[in-house]
Protein 1
Amino acid sequence: MTSRTAPELLSLLSAAEGGWVSGAEISRQLGVSRTAIWKHVMALRAQGYQVEAAPRRGYRLVFRPDLLTPEEVLAGLATRRLGRLVEYRETVGSTNDLAKEMARHGAPEGLLVLADQQTAGKGRLGRSWATPPGAAIAMSLVLRPDLAPHEAPRITLAAAVAVARAVREVAGLAAGIKWPNDVQVGGRKLCGILTEMEAEMDRIAFVVLGIGLNVTLRREQMDPAFRDTATSLALEGAAEVRRAALVQAILARFEGAYDHLLGGRFSVVLDQWRALSVTLGQAVRVLGLDGQVTVEGVAEAVDEEGALLVRDGAGEVHRVLSGEVSLRSS
Amino acid sequence: MTSRTAPELLSLLSAAEGGWVSGAEISRQLGVSRTAIWKHVMALRAQGYQVEAAPRRGYRLVFRPDLLTPEEVLAGLATRRLGRLVEYRETVGSTNDLAKEMARHGAPEGLLVLADQQTAGKGRLGRSWATPPGAAIAMSLVLRPDLAPHEAPRITLAAAVAVARAVREVAGLAAGIKWPNDVQVGGRKLCGILTEMEAEMDRIAFVVLGIGLNVTLRREQMDPAFRDTATSLALEGAAEVRRAALVQAILARFEGAYDHLLGGRFSVVLDQWRALSVTLGQAVRVLGLDGQVTVEGVAEAVDEEGALLVRDGAGEVHRVLSGEVSLRSS
């Protein structure tokens, strides 16, 4: 199956919303033979799609499984350069690890690694991240920005904005951002972002932006340690969401933010981040990477490099570059 | 050959300065059998050492080749934790690449990769770096500092200090540092430092500190593009230098600086850097990574993050984090 024809066939059948599309029409629009169409239909069926075929009427799509395959992600993808090349695995250890491996071997900016299941998914700071089959999105994007390493955290902020906006649009939930990059709904974590990079001191070689988002994950599928603090789209009452549609929305939103970032307009992204933040204005406690409390106070602002500015009880402002933030009111 | 006995035998024979050491004495000091000694001597001979053996007199070291083997580097190494584990290759693509690969698979802090020859040696910014057999030092050290990515450039400054001091001690040349990390003698580049890292946004996974130092390299062995600007210890008239001794001195000096850095005493390293700098106080031209001139002026200072502060003709101070500096007076 070619990488272009399959998504186009899917788009065409899908646009008919269950109605018939004639073989002649498909052949004309896709520029392929009737025999080629038949092969593509067989391939779709093998993946779990139900495509009816009838003489003179053509084809119609009766059931479309919720897959993260390249066909699904590319069918209707609105980006110009991110996610146009997709490496899909049914099962992978970690999409970030695979993306890093591919980046080391020259994978270009925009390569998207997707998996239906991660067996060794990773969160920040070496934590594990559960991705049971079919219940979540595990995506990793290879980026090659012309930035210095100290500017890389901006990418994470941009990604949090993109995910929160995509969740709002596609799932209709009031997603917000907890500094620096947890996307939350109702105070519970819906999505984690793990950004890794390889760099020289003054130049990034590549960044792998990893996004893990809980879609239909049930409470009993979660790590017991996180059951009280994590959630999924389904648990928050979202209507049924196609994962590929959410990936497409995240990619489109992120591409816009990334273009701002690279074009010297990071303040636009930062304004969007501030508008989505659940941290700013709150009383917070910051734990350092060693688990010790480093500062308590009011989260007043986030600066151009993504650092959180926290004013303590004595009126002194602390610039927080890393760590965990908990809201003291919650 | 065990990793401990071989360097100890070498130290013992070497300490006798060409004199005889009896088998009984070696056996006693190293705690190994006479048969084991014989096996070690045979192994040394296979590497190019000339070791004479005579009944009743014992052994004496007549010729010691200039090798970068673990035996040579470990014999008399003064460090506590850096370079105690050595991965030596006669030929390697790039010691930095091998060290990164080993670090990804869990190599501990302090692992030292050494090679006699690099076939695809790398400089900064994707440039190539020539390492013909036997003529240079190519060393890469795995570090796992508890630092944020934006603090990593400090490691490069510390390494430049270590190399400049080691060259002064071992080779007796007046080595200086051109910002940020070229070690020079007489205005020509003797040593390049390539620091690479893998990191999350707020935490370094590992750093690979690569040092390439020209020892006996002749002008015709250099890349034609660098013949006017590069040099070697031999070209600068240094007395014969054992490469392993220089590696030992670099490791010892760097361990001291690294301890200061991790212990919150980076200002000590910075003072040493300033004392060795050939850039401060000079009229400089800074080229950005794109090759364009970004600022011209006088290099006034280097700050706590290693940035160069350049005052331009209008009196404005520019903070330079990356790029190439050329001295306008030279």
Protein 2
Amino acid sequence: MKSVSLLLACILYSSITSLSIAQHNAVDAAQAYREANGPKIIRDFATLLSLPNVASDSAGIHKNAEYISDQYRMRNIQMELLKVPGAPPIIYGRIDVPGATRTLGIYVHYDGQPVDPSRWTHPPFEPVLYSAPIPAGGNPLEMPADADRIDPEWRLYGRSAGDDKAPIVAHLAVLDAFAASNIPLTSNIVFFFDGEEEAGSPRLGDYIETFKHKIDDIDLWIFSDGPVHQSRKPQLVFGVRGVTGMELTVYGANRSLHSGHYGNWSPVPGTLLANLLASMKDATGKVLIEGFYDTVEPLGDEEREALAALPDVDPFLRESFGLVQSEEGNAPIGERLLMPSLTVRGLSSGNVGELARNVIPSTATASLGIRLVKGNDPEHMKDLVEQHIRDQGYHIVREDPDLNTRLRYARIVKITRGGGYPAARTDMNLPLAQQIFKAVQVASGDQALRVPSLGGSLPLYLFTDILQKPVVIVPIANHDNNQHAPDENLRLANLWYGIDLYAALFTMPPED
Amino acid sequence: MKSVSLLLACILYSSITSLSIAQHNAVDAAQAYREANGPKIIRDFATLLSLPNVASDSAGIHKNAEYISDQYRMRNIQMELLKVPGAPPIIYGRIDVPGATRTLGIYVHYDGQPVDPSRWTHPPFEPVLYSAPIPAGGNPLEMPADADRIDPEWRLYGRSAGDDKAPIVAHLAVLDAFAASNIPLTSNIVFFFDGEEEAGSPRLGDYIETFKHKIDDIDLWIFSDGPVHQSRKPQLVFGVRGVTGMELTVYGANRSLHSGHYGNWSPVPGTLLANLLASMKDATGKVLIEGFYDTVEPLGDEEREALAALPDVDPFLRESFGLVQSEEGNAPIGERLLMPSLTVRGLSSGNVGELARNVIPSTATASLGIRLVKGNDPEHMKDLVEQHIRDQGYHIVREDPDLNTRLRYARIVKITRGGGYPAARTDMNLPLAQQIFKAVQVASGDQALRVPSLGGSLPLYLFTDILQKPVVIVPIANHDNNQHAPDENLRLANLWYGIDLYAALFTMPPED
């Protein structure tokens, strides 16, 4: 019996080994393919980035959806656009692999953050290739012709280059590479591409409910959003922060007043707002709102260990961003991102610079962003901010106040509550997640890190908490991709990694 | 001897009385003229307001200067454009009256505040007549034809309607009225119109020095800037506040950062700025900068008495502006304006509203306005603000910091100091000033008030302190003319008062 066991073990070992070799071969084939076809891949990427994709631009979003699903369809994948009324469609596709015992859900979002073109070096939807980052003195390059050599340090600039169209380009390249080399996939694949993630994915829950029958065989979801680690090492991420936000407008007189005739008599909205914001957070970054840190769920041992194993990128980041110290200066970034944050995303009152005039503006507005960690409820966190504002003597309104309201309350703030969603975290010990980590290691040459949570946000709670399915994130973009900001870009080395990564993920051996 | 004295006294009395009657007759003639020619005066005013007059728009300013001097020249007045290199011209004109023993200098500025057209109901240089104030539901009207009835509550909207083109229209109407009725002037008149008052009159001192020989016979200067009292009563004003300002920019990372990946680790410029501004002034309006109130020159008895005689307009103003209380709530506006003020004229960081994105902006900027009272030096007051900022731990730079500077100082602020000038006040007991007050009473039907200082600013110190000549201000514009703000306007009743006023000023009896 022992020899039979040994034989069986040998057969299994050889089978697993050969499958593992198959995964390495698949990655090699993808690498060879992208080395031979780099210029075309880059040009196709630029074409994809030239389609304006702000979620509120319905026509633009639909063009993206049609274009992208056509690209997969051309690779013989069954595609359809799932629709619920009033929302951008979900791009849905399916690859059923004979004999596969596992189904992977691949989530991508094809919409991008709103753009303020005046702050971009080039128009955000006219992609430009650069020899290096623009602030580092990079020069614009022509789009490469077929035989041109590609430098992996080149960057492609354009909205959504990093967030989140790169995985699409990676999938398509892998499918082409596998078709060329006859490499089979080892899991069923479901593509599920969101069209309003940057608008907070307000209908994603509806989509999941409406089309549950199309996704309920998925064993694990894979996201590719967010950047790799700031050390440039690939990472496997087990969670995200949640996100919400709100806008505050405080009021002075019901019109702009001459700062001479009324200065030192009329309230100054900019001063009121400054005092209100200063009461919320001190200059060292500590949030002073009562209860803001109270609901944070403590980290487990696994997470603490993973954190401790992360490279210390703080000095590099500070040097790169021109910062003497981080917000509080006494904790590494990995740890800081496991706490909630309160950010002044925008301030506006009257005018500054050339347009500044000697007036007391009638309003001052702040846009606040809040990032949430496991344990924080988005509505509860906004309630805490509102309670804090009330405690400063403010009367809260939801529309601009009328004269009666103005004459009744000395301090009035209009609060517009944003949407959002909670944080999510997947168990770091899950076997299938361990498999994913092996694939990431294959693609990265054993360089990958494990991270308990990204600082950024994705609506993972819909998958982890509603569908009760594990989610992992395998980011592709460089950490300095200017995600959500002007001059968003992708470093080509990161696109190449993305291709290798999906080659490894699509050819994972069966579970042990 | 007694009878001779009596006779002389009678002759003098009769002479003075007849001269005083002559002044009343002149005002009556001006009133009759404006009643008969109101529509034309309004149309001419609209033509004047249609000439863009922002001081930095050199071509526009020169067009104004040519057009305005032509208007006076057409009334047979010697006009010339005084010029110093690089500055808008001074429009200069002179009326020499045979036998006159007194010369009045008439200062007007023909430039207007910069405009942000997106915030105006109509384009700022396309004047529109309204049946009432726009916020009170006024309707736009056609420009009146010659025989149309004019409602004095109508308002003409356009940049500089109130600040400061109305006196020009008043002068021209008075000159036409006097020409039609053969009414002689009783003083020599010098017109002296500034072209960059709203830019801080940076070259007015040069002009006064260069062309001193053309103005040194002036006995008293008359300004018409600023509004009448908020009670709508005309006023004679003996001083102004000074003005200065500065712009502050605080820095976070050298680029916008994703608020997820860096939120709670990177400094947030909006928070830093809010804390800095909150440290300068509390929410009740008290400036916390050390020394800010220390150099204020105390008021004299005359000034206290004049202040006490002013109508209480605070309840009316609060009702009109939708304010429960004034900044501190415990002192009338007249008193508050005799103290220096610190105003947040503008705030800017990232974006708010639809364009708000989940980033940590790299900078936050505040534009500060400072009004000064007698005793405050503009440079000293800015020095106090800078010292306060240093005391909050900031390193001050004058240009955007380079990487080395960023890596050396944790808190960096760029300060751009604006120009400006000190306050000025004329002795309320001066005999010639008393004469002016009589003229104001004649034009106003004995309704006028005496005010120690306007809240607003004019470069009167050049006249009171450099030329050592008294200055008084006889404002014309309604208090709610939206001076310096969008939808600037003039109430026609105030234009009519301006015409009556200049009729009285141009025909003052010789000094007692």
